[in-house]
Amino acid sequence: MSDLTAIGGGAVTMTSLELVDFINGHRRQQAELAGAEFPSTQHPTLLHKNFLAKVPEVLGAETSAKFSADLPDRYGRPRKGYRFPKRESCLMAMSYSYELQAAVFDHMTALEQQLAAVFTVPQTRAEALRLAADLEEQNAQLMLENQQKALRIESLESVFQAGMTPTQFCKRLNGVNTQQVNGALLAIGWIYDAERDPERSAKYRVSSRARDKYLTEGVISIEKEGGSPFVKYTLVLLQKGAARLHELYLQEALPMKADWDGKFTHAKFALGGRQ
Fold first, then answer.
1. Residue 76, Ramachandran bin (φ over 0: left; ψ between -120 and 50: alpha; else beta)
2. How far apart are CA 7 and CA 147, in angstroms?
3. In a structure prediction context, what are the per-residue pLDDT tens digits for the chain, which is 275 residues long?
4. CA 131 vs CA 127, 187, 195: distances in Å
5. If I label 263, which of 33, 70, 116, 165 is the partner at 20 to 30 A Cα–Cα?
6. Is 230 exposed, middle or buried (0-12, 13-18, 19+ CB in 10 A)?
7. Domain boundaries, the chain
8. Would the pTM count as exceeding 0.70?
9. End-to-end CA distance of the chain, in Å?
10. E-state strands within the chain
11. Distance CA 67, CA 55 (A)
């Protein structure tokens, strides 16, 4: 989120996209504190299109039009949105809850303090040179982060294919120990062993918490000579599940091979090495 956006020589703003991300982050925190899942009925995900529909209702059509803005999507294409100063950002947050309004107010107040610190007028030539160097370093870091984010999105799209199993997906991720992937999914509660007999081969099924969110199941009917056919279930990875596994991979939270070279790579994309 690029929060330090200045207007009018010093005010900070938040875009509608940033506000939606902030609200969803707040809802996720509330769900975690309550020991609940996110998203859920009690803690739903706010969609940007639903937020946009609410803006004229809260601010009025004429007022909201003043803050209309074209916001680039991840491919740089313009999309409809808003850029709000502090007052309107807080009003939009208040339309969801007073607690959220307070959180947005505190957040933007902290950003104002950061902005004031960044743009303190230098008093000497040495301070001016130091400020210029700091700003150049911050811009370079922001560009690097944006490039890395774009690489992650593009590389994930190049790896995932509909109908893949989690193991097939992880085979494309450099260094993952694919023999232990199902064990990792078992540990985080995405799957369970329907066989329940340690002496027999595991029969993995998708758990209710992950079903139709991260995983689904494929069903295969296998004919058995001289006997009745039986059903075999396969784990099928969904796109959101692939994104979550990709996050865990970058966090080194998946089982990795002992001889892994420390590089997060697959196909022709490289996401940097382990520090």
1. left
2. 25
3. 444 444 444 578 999 999 999 999 989 888 888 888 888 888 899 999 999 999 999 999 999 999 999 887 666 677 899 999 999 999 999 999 998 999 999 989 888 887 776 656 667 888 778 877 877 787 677 665 555 554 454 556 667 788 899 999 999 888 999 999 999 999 899 999 988 777 788 889 999 889 988 999 988 777 777 667 777 889 999 988 988 888 888 888 899 999 998 888 764 434 444 54
4. 6, 49, 64
5. 165
6. exposed
7. 6-120, 124-159, 161-268
8. no
9. 24
10. 6-7, 11-12, 14-15, 68-72, 78-84, 191-193, 204-206, 215-222, 230-237, 263-266, 269-273
11. 10
In the block, residue with structure tokens 């999309």: 79
What gap in Å lies between CA 275 and CA 273, rounded to an integer? 6
Tokens found for residue 36: 């609940």
Which residue is associated with the tokens 């009917």? 221
Three-state DSSP at 188 gives: coil
Report the length, in residues, of the chain: 275
